[in-house]
Amino acid sequence: MKLIDLPGLNTKRIKALSESGIHSILDLLNFFPRRYIDRTTVSPIQSLSGSGEETTVVGRIKKIQQKGYGRKKRLEVIIQDNTAALKGVWFKGGHYIRKQFSEDQLVAFFGKAKQYGRYLSMAHPEVDTLGDESEVENLQQIVPIYPGNKSFSKTYINSKLIHRWQQMILKHESPPEFLPDGILKEHQLPVRHKAYRMIHLPASESDYKMAFKRFKFEELFLFELSVAKMKHEVIEKQQGHLFADLGNYTRRFFNEELPFELTEGQASALSDIKQDVRSGKQMNRLIQGDVGSGKTVVAIGAILMALDNGFQAAFMAPTEILAEQHFRTLSEFLDPLDITIRLLVGKQKNSLRTDILTDIEGGACNVVVGTHAVIQQEVSFHRLGLAVIDEQHRFGVRQRAEILTKGSHPHVLVMSATPIPRSLAMTLYSDLDISVIKGLPGGRKPVRTAVRTQKKHQAIYNFMEQELADGGQAYVVYPLVEESEKMDLKDATAGYEKLKNRFADFNVGLIHGQMKSEEKDAVMQQFVANQIQVLVSTTVIEVGVDVPNASIMIVEHAERFGLSQLHQLRGRIGRGQRQSYCILVHGQKVSKEGRFRLRKMSETNDGFEIAEADLKLRGPGDFLGTKQSGLPEFEVADIIEDQWILEQAKSAAWQLMAEDPDLARPNHRELKKVFVPYYKERSRFYGMG
Ligand code: ADP
Ligand code: MG
Q1: 469 near 457, Cβ under 8 Å?
Q2: Of 92, 297, 454, 522, which is the most buried if we count CB atoms within 10 A?
Q3: Which residue among 254, 263, 296, 542 has the greatest number of ligand 1 atoms within 8 angstroms of its CB, and so is best to mutate?
Q4: Are residues 254 and 345 in the same domain?
């Protein structure tokens, strides 16, 4: 059967359908209802409360009348069952609708029943005209409602018509199953052609629920299968460098250099890494740890394992500021060990750059720190054994795949400061092994957070003054609204001027996104060295910077920030021995969601809890902030709501991949037909195709 065989299809409608991505009969079958209305219960009119409940009533027509004039013109049809009367009202199209009615006729109205004056009414009810009472049985059904759009309404494609088409298609078509029998049975999924019936022509609520589950499963299963395949092809088949020895570097660092004990979380992450790099396979591991949990030391441990075995390591951060900061931290730790570490960033002079590149290629340089350009540009390494990526979620799956597959196939260690909720991590990072660093290094006092209105600035500044006088340092953060960076700058600059006056006894600095990176760096350095006590900034300080003496943070217009962003910001303080304070200042008008965010921040310091809440508020696309995050846009499934289906689909997919990686078995033939093109598409996306 072809689209064109459907009744009522003309070129305009075909165009409208194709604008919605419907080019074939199968596409149309995959066009699912947005919701269903339940017409299975017929209510006695007397029983209705009139508060707008959606229901079906059946009665005989008592009166048909045209009422009102001009714009108030309307058709009223009064029906009565053996309990009471109800009025159907049409403000539009009454002239046409009235043709189907005659007095004493039996009709069913479906709609929202509201009490208006003396009468219960339904505005524009759906109507079925019935021959006699026996037809009531047939009429009762679950009616699918399909999503509409502009081109649909222009060409008069409505939900009813789509439903008619689906009925027609399902009379003739029976799409073949491709999920293996065993999986259907194990997860109690309806077979494909039945599922289509259950979704378009359900007999009950449980019908379409089961059908939806199946299609969600199918979608997530294919996705997970592609991730499993990717892992199988790219990683499992790939030999990993062997870091067999824990040598001098590692021993000296942990025994002599490191000024503190590792936390339990750090130690267990390191032991995971040690196992990976001795397995003979390529490591592809994510370290998840809240801000301040001490991921850098873990990375250093991994770097030393590479160096001890004669390999080089690369350490990459999303921004130059961060790369520079990591360069300083790493230098501090590694210089005493006579390790050569170099910073590679865009702004360096050509001669210096050439020099660095030569050292990397020749092997004189052990560790390169930079932005992700380090991997993307034509930097050739002497013997790269490990790539560390900090603040992972800004990188995206694609870049990660590039690193894994290109060059010398280094081990990859990614570190995420944004605690990604389990549900999302499972999907996004299915191909990664995950270590979670729980808890913060000892001696840390949790940051205390307060929410205040702008009116309290006086009191806030007084408090801040005490902290400063007591030797602390402060961040004052202004929001950055992308559409108008200029306006923010005005905010931050005005704030800077104000604070300079208010805190005349201290040094106040300003840092914002439009400054050159040398300028930013200079200001940052001054803050680190405590030559500046108050740092006014836009959100450029969001990730990674480490100034343990900073103990107070004031966030202006805090209601404009997202939850994860606030959490990242707050992570800048509470890094030293001092009790730290975060004050979230908000304006007069705060949306309900804004209030929720502020309250959440004041209630918890737990990054995972905050991330979970943020994900719920914003949805996965926004949460990750980037389309290239690697997450496909699922059509049917919702990776938050449908977590349990995701887990089932994942385990089924990975098991199948382990048993029959090429889908060569006869009972996987149909699956292979569907999967091969799907996988091709996904791997193209990953830059591997
Ligand atoms: P993040 O996980 O946010 O990247 P960092 O690696 O920047 O955290 O560590 C935050 C701070 O905690 C740094 O100043 C670091 O030196 C310190 N730190 C890390 N591990 C420990 C530890 N086990 N004990 C005490 N301080 C630690
Ligand atoms: Mg960090």
Answers
A1: no
A2: 297
A3: 296
A4: yes
